[in-house]
Amino acid sequence: MRRELTEDEKIRIVANRAEALRRAEERKRREALAAAAVAIAAGPSGKASVPRHQGFSITIPQVILFNSLSLVFQFYYYYYYYYYYYYYYYYYYYYYYYSY
Questions:
Q1: Number of domains in the chain
Q2: I want to staple 9 with a disulfide (CB 3.0 to 4.6 A). Which of 5, 33, 60, 76 is the partner?
Q3: Is the model's pTM score more than 0.90?
């Protein structure tokens, strides 16, 4: 003879069912997105019109632009990093110095 379920067990069963339903909905949504991506990649003709990879070429102006941008971002990163490090270091230094 089966025993009566406690309230905690009933809540856990309902929560597990809700989680399983949520996972099933998420899986359906992912499968629909994947099917849509395949249909978009196939194009109007129904065949995959995405060109195959024909090699990798990069031009010299692109190299110069990328290097200059990376130098600019490096400068800003280190400038702000050291600025805030300096600011917070002296802020806490004066805070503890004048708190005693």
A1: 2
A2: 5
A3: no
